[in-house]
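note to self: the first set is below, dont mix up w the second
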Amino acid sequence: MIERLKEWKGWQLAILSGVLLGLSFPPLKLGFLAWFGFLPLLRALLRERLIRGALLSFFAGLVTNGLALHWLIFNIGAPLHITTASLVAASLYLSIFWGLFGFVFLWLHSRIGAGLVLMPCLWVGLEFLMSLGPVGFPWVSLATTQTDYLPVIQLAEWTGIFGISFWLVSLNSILYDLFIVPRSHRLFLLREVSLVLASIWLIGYVRLATLSNDDQSKRVTVSVVQPNIGPHEKWRPENRDEVFAQLDSLYLIAADSQPALIIWPEAATPAFLTKNQRRLAQVRNRIRQTGIPLLTGTVDWGLSDRKRHYYNSVALIHEEGEIPIYHKNQLVPLGEFNPFVRQLPASEDLNLGHYARGKKMTIFELGETSFASIICFESVFPRLVRRLTLEGAEFLVVVVNDGWYGKTAEPYQHEAIVRLRAVEHRYPVVRSANTGISAIIDKSGREVATIGLEEAGVITASIIPAKGETLYNRLGDWIVFLAFLSLMHIGVRHWRAANS
């Protein structure tokens, strides 16, 4: 295979890798393409100098991210020139990390001959950096490509998403070696490839078969409401009564199953629900009749420094008393806030929202059980979920509004990512989406119940809360620490050798 690529030009090989890796993301169920998607790029890199190699790697990243995130252009909440700019900006930004990967990989290979050996450590380190800060975006972690392979993602219990990425890049590295070594050495490498590929599946199947039964006495029944109301229609004044009526009717359908909790999606109500006394009284009257509390996404506001700040929030409402509320911590860049407003005032034209960032972790109480709720984009950040789990959350609720993207790849990718959160902490994850995909997911990452796109309805299932006492929960991104440590160790050794 590699020999056949000899005649290809570098940019062609970069495009091929970009296409293979871009198509490996959901919903196409082509995750296996990521097992060898780096091979053409490696072929191109290993015959180039540092700068040109970095550019080729950047180009491959541009194709990968452009394909994986193409749905950004279909956002119905903004005009085409804005959505196009957001896709271009996101792809360019994320591809910078790819360019850095190509540069450092070639430096390691040319100086100490360890590029292929350290490639998994390098990739994991850069993928971690890609997830940091206000513009962090772990959505395009390679781990997302494997979410259709239940045995593979069981690795997240021990390593989080970066362990899955490490495995994928290791597989690519060994495969490349297999194709370039002399035939006499290929049998050994073929065994090594088979071991790396088969072991992760075998371990996953064994782990799925040996997952212990949780304490059945803690079983809790939850109902998820999916109203399927378009994000534009919801806020039209003439539609508000109808929206509340539909939410109420679905609440009553859910109440028939006598769950312990009913969940509405992100920004479900066309009102500042905790501040609008008339609407809040309506909701509380219904809760008083059924005795079932409601967790709902809602917009909210608060005063600080004599200014009104708006929040994307989720609140737990009982028939009376104080309303515990969580304000979204990780906002969508240029969707909910503008991280560049000081440096680039003109970028404010691209900003679609003006929300303030929440600063507190909120743990909600439900009888003897504690849970956390996060909002939409936050579900792609494993460290945020880990913080909430360490605070005492025994299951996770994700409220979402993916209606801005219709029937594109976005809601499929977004729902796939939360399956990883379930495995990382071995507890249930409940996802309520305005227009889909809503799901109740067990601790193995398996969907127990779902509602598809652009359907209105209710799903109800019993879940078993758990403490989330996994290796990943205790140690966090330890594999990233080891990756950086390995890179630093090799770097120091090379520096000492060069100066001795």
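second set (the one i keep forgetting abt)
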Amino acid sequence: MDLRTSDGSESRFSAFVEGLVSVIGHADRARPLFDYCIGLIMPGERKSVEPMAAVTAPDRTAAQHQSLLHFVGQSPWSDEGVLAKVGEMVLPAIERHGPIEAWIIDDTSFPKKGAHSVGVARQYCGQLGKQDNCQVAVSLSLANHHASLPAMYRLYLPQEWAADKKRRRKAGVPKEISFKTKPEIALEQIDAACRAGLPRGVVLMDAGYGCNTDLRTSISALALTYVAGILPNTTVWTSDTAPLPPKKWSGKGRPPKLLRRDHKHQPISVKELALCLPKRVWRTIKWREGAAERLSSRFARARVCVAHRDYQLTESRPEEWLLIEWPEGEDEPTKYWLSALPETITFGRLVELTKLRWRIERDYQDLKQEVGLGHFEG
């Protein structure tokens, strides 16, 4: 991209960076910020600090390298403040194409070879599709069918890092940062987005987050709806089944309050349920334009109540949608979701919102390939 020849790009870019300068604090950080942003959008195989220094200041690369390193690693500016400012400037442009429809919870990984980058550990790396040495960041993005925008973003700090005071001190991890699971980080981000008054949407999650019953319950407690990926072994009660009520009180001791099960009253896995559904409930639904034609697949839906440890509860969980995808030609269903969207939602709209997660997957791919997110160093 050549800012000097792109129509209006140079002035728009300068205005964007000037907006960020207003929240990074000291005026001395303005030039490094401008150069860093230039380095991200200029052509280059790697978007880490050293090659960016060579691109933005070829005549004084060593000095520029130090300047950018200090700006990224030492300057105490607020990443939350920068993200909030980016949202303030960018959201209106996204909303010109339609209202925000979804809050997408996701994480992204950065493969690493060393052991010094904050949070690096042997863990599942989505970029590689296997366990490997990497960093992982949890994000909350606002999205519609046109674009998505990261609104919250935080590195995941594994337990071995959180408990290692020497390692934390050397890497500059703030004292107030403690170990939290990825679902706990996600819930904090959702809560912060609510408190910030960001335009609301349905919370979309893959099974890495959606299988967490506490996370789904907490999202509902914030008056938000969700579509959450789940695993095939998730158990549910169907519309014509239910746990047993509490035992009758004998008149002695405390009255029983907990739901019960016996050999005749057992929940069913969502996979078992899907395989039992009659052919008439399956529908082929199209949801968006693909590269050559509209994408489509075969779906069924049913009203269910999640059964997870409900024998520890005094009443059943609320009824919600179970959405199942079973593409033609597959031997069994391939994906399952639970959704707290209204009972009145149309089948097509339920599928359309569920599949909106593709937006963040595509945008993360572009961020890694075009502006160097995959070369993150921190």
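remember for set 2: The first strand starts at residue 102 and ends at 111.
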